[in-house]
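Model: You mentioned two targets. I'll fold them one after the other.
Researcher: Yes, keep them separate.
Model: Target one:
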Amino acid sequence: MTTYREIFKHNNERCRNVFVVGEAGSGKSSLSQLIAYLWSEENKEAGAHHQSQDAHFTDVDTIQEFEFLFHVALRDSCNTCNYVDMIRNQLLQRLYKSQDIDKAYALVEEVLETSHCLILADGRDEWSHPDGPCNCTHRERGIRPLIHQKNSAIVLLTCRPVGFTKIPEHKVDNYLEIEGAEDVQQLCINIIKVLNGNTGTKRFAEFKTSLTENRLWNNLPKSPILLIQMICLWYDNHELSKSVSITYASIFDMLIGRAKDEVVTSQNENLDNKKINIIPDMDNINSNWKQFTELCKLAFEKLFAKDGRSAVVFSTRDCKDDLKTFAVKCGILTEKKSKSVSFNSHHLSFQHKTFQEFLASVHLSLHDDLLATDIEPRYYNESNLNQYFEASKELERIFVFMCALDGNTAEKMSEYLNKLDKNDTCMLISKGFREALYAGNTSIELACPCKIEIVNPCGTDIQAYIRWIKKNQRNIRYIKLTKHKQNMDFLIRLLQNFPQLAKIHFLLT
């Protein structure tokens, strides 16, 4: 897709319901804010600026054709399920005196019925239906906010994949996936330029060389937020790792370190004297262990809430003031004021969804009994497989993190994943095994699925793979290897050790 027209029209027909779906930090909110900004430019200077930067998305006129535009944050309207009521709470009450609100409300209803309007509804997965009575049908209740059939407005709704699963197909006129930065290299150059300021001398070529040496360049995240943090690690002379868990731990250590002059350090009291493999050498985390583990507990409790509603946005009441101050100053939590005038409050969220997932994994590794009490009954029970697949992305990342943090818990999780017998879960177990090796956890004993994937193992990894395969060779039916000289050598060694593997299907990619 290269034009705004393609967002709002399909087969030359105007779309009423447009869904922009992407993972946390991929740019969904930035897109909705950009559209609102471009629409507000009266003299179209923004369009001219856009054209000078890129050949794509130069048709700003498409956006400015809308007579009215309303931008609502769904996280701030969990008390209502009607778009017009959301506009009243978030916009009208800021613009009109109380005695004029009803007239303005009626005017908005009329405008939505008779004019060319766009509603930008940001964050479906951060919205929950109110508990009270409403005009939604039983079938529609809780799926998405309601808009009256008489209204002719186009609604562009952003959400994460987990928030899209219940949307009926006939309610979707245009479905778009946003993956993040297309030109990762240019984004890296821009970020390094900002970090350099007027005095810095570091260059993109040095960053790419460092990543290439560590075999990380081809696996850079497209999420701008995570990419920024990785560049900051390199800029601050932290060693970059192939282990995603070590990378996240290093990010938290860096963030706490940057704010150490503004936060109060706590005594180094390791909870239950249990230590995590990848953290002992991270001084900033260890000197703030109490706050760090409290954040881990908060992340877990919100991700695996007892009522079944995972929360990425939550009230400031859920976080103690001193912990909130610490986490916000470090940049681990972000605090925003509600746009709803009716609820004049602030809410919190982790800077990135994967930040929350990593911290939740640390809490699980410190309290491994939670696997049996909070996760197994809900997700790994045969009767709850649908729930597992709805929450699969976050559970998959939890599993990968656990392979580095706590081998015993990861081994139990791999057994449940292996029972699902799906191609995706087979590849996931292989990914977890690689993560364990990257983090130095070479003694891990994961369940071995019938299909495994091996990506460029180094010398020390080869022995671990051979041990893993030897123990489970009867189960394996398929081995996928990246077509690389080192992997070809590995394949020869496998066949020399296990002649019976010649009957297995090998795929070289």
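Model: Target two:
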Amino acid sequence: MFEYESASLNLPSQRRDEPRPVRFRYHVAVLHSLQRYLRKHRLVAPGQRVGVAVSGGADSVALLRALAALAPSLGIVPVVLHLNHALRGPDSDADAHFVAALASALSLDAALATEDVATLAARHHLSLEAAGRRARYQFFYSAAATHRLDSVATAHTRDDQAETVLLRLLRGAGTSGLAGIHRSLDLGALAASPLAPESAPDHVPPPRLIRPMLSTTRLQVEEFLRSLGQPFRQDASNLSPQFLRNRVRAQLLPALERDYNPQLRQALAETAEIAAAESAFLDDLVSAVLPQTPDLARGIDLHLLQAQPLALQRRILRRLCHPHGLALDFAQLESLREFALAGRAGSLQLPRGFAAELVREKFLPPLLRLLAPTID
């Protein structure tokens, strides 16, 4: 158990085994890198209120400490956000207590909540990971309305980005998948999905989800916290080989770096950067092809789809599926595309009870529609 009151909130005094200039260099390097990334990508602006998602782990604690230090120069107001997932009993409660104490020590406002993620997962037939993600987005959305937040920052690092890209390569991924963790996401896109809380006021603009530490490594995070003498919480599940991401982190990535490319994490992060820009460009092309406010429930003009190059055909079909949360793998998407290009009236069964229907009516262009499963 940590002694929360003992956490130093300034640079600690010099230790015998590590000269202050070295520790100071770690401290300044992380702050400089974070500030440069925030300004380069215009993730925050003076006068904005920024929620900082803090689990209590090393990455999120480092993000909070860094943003608190940079707040005066950036002109922002950090607000601490913590959701207790209630999955680890007393340890989860201790995480919440740790975050509350840290927010108090930094003189920052905090929003803390609890969600029974296990019950949520069972109710909606989700994995614990998916249920936890849903709960967090709901919490962020609600907290943004309550605390007038312009954005919510999460502490994904360059190592997280590398792991994500490698995981998606193992499972199979296109350009969108290789883009990995996006540096910025409009949470307003969730407003029409089950992730958005019903209580969110319509007149409050939704925040952006930002990841300002994607250029910061996990090693830099650890050195930064050490330079501050700042404790953090450890989640034992992050070390369990039961989870694929943990095996990639502890076994696969180190082996690939040792035997093939010592700079693999950097290479994977750069791959994500390139893929993200190209994916955004393709999305813009799709938006230019489709009407500005397409009625996707009505369907897609088959002639418009057939006239597009292969890459845009696939993107348009994914755009058709997106509002329903229907994610198709490559084979399923190709089946749908071939069904559409064949141009024959009929239907095609898709995963989760969905179906595609090709409708031909006299004097009207043929339409490709997506039919949601019927609820008994």
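Researcher: Noted. Anything on target two?
Model: Residues 1-16, 191-200 have pLDDT under 50 and may be disordered.
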